[in-house]
Design goal:
The chain folds into two domains: about 100 residues, Four Helix Bundle (Hemerythrin (Met), subunit A), CATH 1.20.120; about 35 residues, no CATH class. A hairpin with a 5-residue loop joins strand 1 and strand 2. A two-stranded antiparallel ribbon has the order 1-2. It has four helices and two strands. With about 140 residues, the protein is mostly helical. The chain is elongated, with a radius of gyration of 20 Å.
Length: about 140
């Protein structure tokens, strides 16, 4: 696996996301026009602002994930799962270059979230057997 190529691609993606989040931030907080007097138009503007805010939040989250991936590359732990210490498969890293977990831990977290199992109490283990566990 060409780690330097991945690092370069992540840096490019980060720059693209940073540019996009700057534009969405400006769109939300630095409006050039006053609020419309038309109530229906105000509703549409509010809905659009909500969508743009969600896009901005997603961009910021992805930048955070990319920054963490770049730190793991620099520290030599890029291919190591941050949850269990196992090896993240090359195909997974190529598909999601900022992932920090191998597919087993990712499935475990996703499955628990779908079941609403969080924090202390009942959690599903990666083999999906229900277990009592205190965090």
């Amino acid at each position: 696996m060409d780690i330097q190529r991945i690092k370069s691609d992540l840096s490019e993606k980060r720059a693209e996301l940073e540019s996009r989040t700057e534009r969405t931030h400006k769109h939300i907080y630095q409006k050039d026009e006053p609020v419309s007097a038309n109530f229906n138009e105000q509703i549409k503007q509010t809905e659009n602002d909500g969508l743009v805010m969600a896009l901005e939040a997603e961009g910021i989250e992805e930048i955070t994930q990319i920054d963490k991936a770049l730190q793991r590359i620099d520290s030599g732990t890029y291919t190591q799962c941050q949850h269990c210490g196992g090896e993240i498969g090359e195909s997974r890293l190529l598909a999601i270059p900022y992932t920090d977990s191998w597919i087993g831990c990712a499935s475990y977290a996703c499955h628990n979230a779908e079941l609403g199992l969080k924090g202390p109490g009942q959690l599903m283990e990666p083999n999906f057997k229900l277990k009592e566990q205190l965090l």
